[in-house]
Amino acid sequence: MSKERHRTLSRRERQMMDILYQRGRASAAEIHQALPDPPSYSAVRAKLRVLEEKGHVRHEEESLHYVYLPTLPRETARRSALRHMVSTFFDGSVEQTVAALLDLSAARLAKDDLDRISVLIEEAKNEGESK
Prior knowledge:
Strands 1-3-2 form a 3-stranded antiparallel beta sheet. The protein has 2 domains: 3-70, Orthogonal Bundle (Arc Repressor Mutant, subunit A), CATH 1.10.10.10; 92-130. The longest helix is centred in the last third of the chain and has 20 residues, at 111-130. The protein has helices at residues 3-7, 11-23, 28-34, 41-53, 74-89, 94-105, 111-130; strands spanning 26-27, 57-62, 65-70. β2 (57-62) and β3 (65-70) form a beta hairpin. It contains 7 helices and 3 strands, in the order ααβααββααα. With 131 residues, the protein is mainly alpha-helical.
């Protein structure tokens, strides 16, 4: 299995990871209960094994059952997912990615949000000039 395959998550796997990040730790039963339109309990357990094989979760034994925890901090996982999205859908172009995000949300962005984005862009420009 390629390294990229280890990072890629299916929709259901992302839902399960979201539950784990929200709770910090959860049993298969708790994850099963929290999933929208849940598959069978055994399917949840199978997906947890896959997530463990991919290196996204680990388990600890508590009171005769496993409790699952994310292996990476949420921010690290976000950055990895974003890098994957940029390379997969935008040919590695950050400019195209930002343009698409702004196009999707321009009508909903408040002036304060746009001001914060402008500040981040200025900081990135200054950082680029200093390198």
